[in-house]
Specification:
Structural class: mainly alpha
Number of helices: 6
CATH superfamily: Cytochrome c-like domain
Number of domains: 1
Strand content: under 5%
Helix content: 40-55%
Radius of gyration: 21 Å
CATH class: Mainly Alpha
Bound molecules: heme C
CATH architecture: Orthogonal Bundle
Length: about 140
């Protein structure tokens, strides 16, 4: 009997960890990652690596500067030459609209000049957390 308990111990632990693993939400390409799992620190690195070729926080490049973008209307940086499509889109940037935008800008705003997609829901959540933080929100 004592031998059975010794054997059963690790088996029970293994079963519990399988249950715990399957209980965690599976990553999905479409569902927005929950904001509680977003990291502005990771977002800063993703921003540098994936947005930095076209954007910076404080200078217009190929795309408009981003500081303050969270909570702002689309197309609102005064000295950036936006497309008419984005300017008249009426979008206000928040966690939801930014998530839709980053999945596919051209689908959300046909005619926009941003042809870049961030396919990972986790990366979108992290970048959005970073933009929010850098906008003082
Ligand atoms: C290949 C260049 C390019 C890359 C890479 C890129 N963007 Fe853009 N982005 C643009 C351009 C160009 C615009 C302006 C679009 C327009 O006027 O239609 C823009 C516009 C935006 C806007 C709207 C800003 C405003 O003031 O309304 C947001 C938000 C944005 N980009 C976020 C991002 C993020 C976050 C990333 C990285 C995950 C990224 N972009 C990567 C080119 C790029």
């Amino acid at each position: 009997m004592a031998g059975f308990v010794r054997l059963a111990g690790p088996a029970v632990v293994a079963m519990l960890s399988i249950a715990a693993a399957s209980a965690s939400p599976a990553p999905s390409a479409h569902a927005p990652a929950s904001p509680s799992s977003a990291s502005a620190a990771r977002g800063a690195e993703i921003y540098e690596a994936k947005c930095g070729a076209c954007h910076s926080l404080d200078q217009n490049r190929i795309g408009p500067k981003h500081r303050g973008v969270f909570g702002r209307k689309a197309g609102a940086v005064p000295d950036f030459p936006y497309t008419a499509a984005l300017k008249k889109s009426g979008i206000v940037w928040n966690a939801k609209t930014l998530d839709t935008w980053l999945q596919s800008p051209v689908k959300m705003v046909p005619g926009t000049a941003m042809g870049f997609q961030l396919r990972s829901a986790q990366e979108r959540a992290d970048v959005i957390a970073y933009l929010k933080q850098q906008s003082g929100k």
